[in-house]
Design goal:
Shape: elongated
CATH class of the domain at 152-323: Alpha Beta
Strand order of the largest sheet: 1-2-3-4-5
Largest sheet: 5 strands, mixed
CATH architecture of the domain at 152-323: 3-Layer(aba) Sandwich
Structural class: alpha/beta
Order of helices and strands: HHEEEHHEHHEHHH
Number of helices: 9
Oligomer: single chain
Radius of gyration: 60 Å
Helix content: over 70%
CATH topology of the domain at 152-323: Trna Endonuclease, Chain: A, domain 1
Length: 392
């Protein structure tokens, strides 16, 4: 009995081992089958993805071919346009060269005529120079006559009067001066000048004594020069005294008079060698002026007259300035309104552009939609693309 049980126990143990081995083999087979199934499924998905990539590559190649054909057509069109433009440019350059050549020819012809005319005029000018040389000889004789005039007191006074009148008349308006005006004491100065804002007139005397200066110039030794210098001091001092006695009238004339020296060289000799005479004239309230100094004084008086006229018209100027300021303010307001309108227009244009961009974006999105009938291949390609995207 015990022996049978032992044998049965061994049989039972052996059966258990066989069953376990069979279960392990079955499990191994299941694992192998599952692995094979997964491998097949992965290969299928890989084939689908490869097919989708191949179709996408074909589409891109087709699109590239289409773009290449389109680019080729455009390049041909551009080549034709460039050829046409080159022909037009060549024709235009030819026309311009012809025009320039024609103008250059005309210019040369005109230059030739001008040169001929200038040569003719040059000959005429040479003839004028010859006649001027002849007149220069006569002018020399006239200078000699002028010397004779200066040696004559009355003629010399007329000469100085003429120079003084020319300077005053050129610098002042007609109502600001008068020649040979009769004063209340029956004296008649060579010229009076009316200053703005003052009823008193300024006297200008043009009868400067020149005999002593002629003697001083002709002096040959120191004694003669001393005698001539004493005569200059006497004559000028006496003339200064005459002016102060005849032309200073309280309430009618200014406290300052002007003595006109008609020669710059004589005035320079006075300032350099006869300072005592100048100081004596200044103490007598008489100013000696040369032609250039008189011109400067007249310019100062001209500025004073102009300023007085400006002051007289100050209310008119102020009124015009106020009107100008009103116009400027109105212009500023109108410019501000114009700026507001331009800003509103710019804002409207910006909003229109935003709306246009939105419409263009929506049109692009609509254009990208595919409304064709789906097929099995397309569905497979889409599925493959989705799986590839998910795997990535």
């Amino acid at each position: 009995m015990d022996k049978t049980l032992i044998i049965f126990g061994q049989v039972f143990a052996t059966t258990t081992l066989v069953v376990g081995a069979l279960g392990a083999a079955l499990a191994l087979l299941l694992l192998v089958a599952f692995a094979v199934w997964r491998t097949a499924r992965a290969q299928k998905f890989a084939r689908l993805a490869a097919d989708a990539r191949e179709r996408e590559l074909d589409e891109r190649l087709n699109e590239a071919n289409r773009l290449q054909a389109e680019l080729t057509g455009r390049l041909q069109t551009i080549g034709e346009i460039l050829t046409t433009r080159q022909s037009d440019l060549a024709r235009l350059v030819t026309d311009r060269l012809d025009t320039v050549g024609h103008r250059v020819g005309q210019g040369l012809e005109a230059q030739t005529r001008t040169t001929s005319d200038q040569l003719a005029k040059l000959g005429e000018r040479l003839a004028v120079i010859d006649s001027a040389q002849a007149r220069l000889t006569g002018l020399t004789q006239e200078v000699v006559g002028l010397k004779d005039i200066l040696s004559n007191k009355q003629a010399r006074g007329a000469f100085g009067q003429g120079r003084m009148e020319a300077i005053v008349r050129d610098g002042l308006p007609g109502n600001a001066f008068a020649f040979q005006h009769t004063l209340s004491n029956r004296n008649r100065p060579d010229c009076i000048v009316r200053l703005p804002g003052d009823d008193r007139v300024m006297v200008i005397d043009a009868k400067f004594p020149l005999e002593a200066f002629s003697a001083l110039k002709d002096a040959s030794d120191a004694a003669a020069r001393e005698i001539a210098g004493a005569r200059v001091r006497h004559d000028v001092g006496r003339h200064v005294k005459d002016i102060s006695e005849r032309y200073f009238i309280p309430g009618e004339t200014q406290d300052l008079a002007v003595l006109f020296v008609p020669s710059e060289s004589i005035y320079a000799d006075l300032m350099e060698h006869f300072d005592d005479v100048i100081q004596k004239a200044h103490r007598a309230r008489i100013i000696l002026v040369s032609p250039s100094l008189l011109m400067m004084a007249i310019q100062v008086l001209q500025a004073l007259v102009r300023d007085a006229r400006v002051r007289e018209q100050a209310h008119v100027i102020q009124s015009e300035v106020r009107k100008l300021m009103d116009d400027v303010r109105r212009l500023r307001d109108r410019v501000a309104k114009l700026g507001t309108h331009l800003q509103q227009t710019q804002d409207d244009v910006t909003q229109v552009l935003v709306s246009a961009d939105k419409i263009g974006g929506r049109a692009d999105r609509i254009d990208q939609l595919d409304f064709s009938a789906p097929d099995a291949n397309h569905a497979t390609g889409v599925l493959g693309s989705s799986l590839v995207s998910a795997a990535e």
